[in-house]
Amino acid sequence: MSVFNFRSISSAFLVAALMVGGTAAHAAEDLKIATVDMQKALQSVEAGKKAKAQLEKEFSQLKKQIEGEEAALKKMDEEFKKQSLVMNDEARAKKQGELQERFMKYQEMRARSQMDIQKKEKDLTGPIIGKLRGVISETAKAKGYGLVLERNENTVLFSLDKDDLTADVISAFNKANKG
Fold first, then answer.
1. Which of 24, 89, 133, 154 is close enough to 20 for a disulfide, judged by CB 3.0 to 4.6 Å?
2. Pairwise CA distance, residues 56 & 72, whole Å
3. Distance of CA 166 to CAs 45, 56, 96, 141, 173, Å?
4. Tens-digit pLDDT profile for residues 38-68
């Protein structure tokens, strides 16, 4: 949630309090707010760990291929720099064109693999995140919280540890998703 949205929400509470009087202010005081670190929860639940391991396994070969091509390009560039001093203009231009073409193919392969990784990660983690949201909702209701914010450095600047439901959510998720 951006600072702008938080200000809008704060302003809405203020306007409501002024319009309704003490009733809205009293309701805001009774609102219990919790936080959950979704990234930590996703990385800590067993299903998240399995998804991460599967992703790493599937793309370790691709990573090796990319690193190999990068090393080959570096070697080709170094050789070209050494040989370019003794090459004629036509040979130098041809070799430079080959090097540029191979570098462009490398960049395309790297970008394509990055998109593949992101898509696969989304496919693997999407269902887990959906289930986590359900567990968060159940946990918050059971503990009497009316609002749950995602705890990260960009949205929640401070919250009390007692209002952080992350550990409870991880535990409840793992218990509900055994097997």
1. 24
2. 23
3. 11, 25, 54, 14, 10
4. 999 999 999 999 999 999 998 998 899 999 9
Domain boundaries, the chain: 1-31, 32-176
Q: What is the pLDDT of residues 71-98, one digit of tens each?
A: 999 999 999 998 988 889 999 999 999 9
The token pair that represents 93 in the structure block: 């231009």
**Rounded mean pLDDT of the chain?**
86
Which pLDDT value is given to residue 45? 97
Taking each helix axis from N to C end, the angle separating 3-20 and 22-30, rounded to the nearest 10 degrees, works out to: 130
Question: What's the pTM?
Answer: 0.68
CB 44 within 8 A of CB 167: no
Strand partners, 33: 147
* Residue length of the chain: 179
* Ordered DSSP codes for 75-136: HHHHHHHHHTTTS-HHHHHHHHHHHHHHHHHHHHHHHHHHHHHHHHHHHHHHHHHHHHHHHH
